[in-house]
Amino acid sequence: MARKLFVLTVAILAVVFSISHAYDPSPLQDFCVAVNDSMAAVFVNGKICKDPKVVNADDFFKSGLNIPGNTSNQVGSAVTAVNVGNLPGLNTLGISLVRIDYAPYGLNPPHTHPRAAEVLVVLEGTLYVGFVLSNPGPNMKNKLFTKILKPGDVFVFPIGLIHFQFNVGKTKAVAFAGLSSQNPGVITIANAIFGSDPPINEDVLTKAFQVDKKVIDYLQSQFWWDNN
């Protein structure tokens, strides 16, 4: 009896284990259109792997994060990213890094990272940060979590949620953030909605934002600065 129970337990665990691993890996790019072409290059995590025999230390190295970004723009911030696009050794490791510089009262506008959670640490200045929850319950609004951060403080933004940072001080601010993807992606809300190419149909936006058509026309006519 005990032997039969043991065998049954092992069988159940084997099934559970196989089910838990029977899923697609998280995508590391916005899309991957299927192509029926045997000669097409095969990509892993959006990149082709380098021959290990020619890999060297420089593939895992990048300098320059000591250099402040240019914050003389409309939003007063600059994001300097280190991801698989400029540090090849990050491929398949599931991590990346950014430096964020803020002018006085500079803003890193509300945005999301579709493929990464983010942990932010402030090195200099004072930041007002926050994120908004998704899927509120019945008769609930999307809840906002905010915090004032000073040097040495750390704050986490969960994956995919809209978040922001605003320099509330009269001096510059600097922060670094780690992200749980080699290619986290970024969708800056205002830029994506009002600055998409081609533009989103204004009838859609008029109804979505419940404003006059002239307001949408005005917003779509603006130049939406990309601080990345």
Automatic annotation (TrEMBL):
Main location class: secreted
Family matches, as SMART domains: Cupin_1
Domain of life where this protein originates: Eukaryota
Listed Gene3D superfamilies: Jelly Rolls
Pfam family, one: Cupin_1
UniProt cross-references to PANTHER family, sorted A to Z: GERMIN-LIKE PROTEIN SUBFAMILY 3 MEMBER 3
Protein name, UniProt field: Germin-like protein
Organism field: Nicotiana tabacum
